[in-house]
Structures are given as structure tokens and as C-alpha cells.
Amino acid sequence: MAERKSVLLRLDPAVHDALTRWANDELRSTNAQIEFLLRRALAEAGRLPTGAAAPPKRGRPRKDDGESRDG
């Protein structure tokens, strides 16, 4: 996986609070919510690069115990 870029983002405190509440409602971190919104805006504008990596999977990774769940 490609290294992720760090960006310093200055936000109005009220906007940050609103983003944090929205992120909590969708079980995301504030950072993940901002990336989700940026990706959606880029896609809607037709500007999401085709080479952009898929967003990370949400939630805890599945436990792989090496056994089939079917039996």
C-alpha cells in the first residue's frame, strides 16, 4: 500500500465539531470522514484519479483462524 500523505488542515471550530458529530454518526474517525467527503466530491466532479487507492476498509479486520466457516 502506498504511503499516506499528512496534511495540516485549519478548520473553523464549529465546522470541525459538525464533522466530528457526523463522523461519529457514521462510525468513522473525523479524518476518515473528511477523506470520505473529499473522495465523494472529487468523484461527483469527475476529478477522482483512476489510480487513487481504494479507501481503507472500515471496522476491525476479520479474524482468520484458518478454518472454513461452512463446516
TrEMBL record:
**GO BP terms, alphabetized:** regulation of DNA-templated transcription
- SUPFAM superfamilies named among the record's database cross-references: Ribbon-helix-helix (SSF47598)
Region Disordered, residue ranges: 46-71
The record's listing under InterPro entries reads: Arc_rbn_hlx_hlx, Ribbon_hlx_hlx
Q: Which domain of life is it from?
A: Bacteria
Q: Where is the composition biased (Basic and acidic residues)?
A: 62-71
- Its recorded name reads Toxin-antitoxin system HicB family antitoxin
Native source species: Saccharothrix saharensis
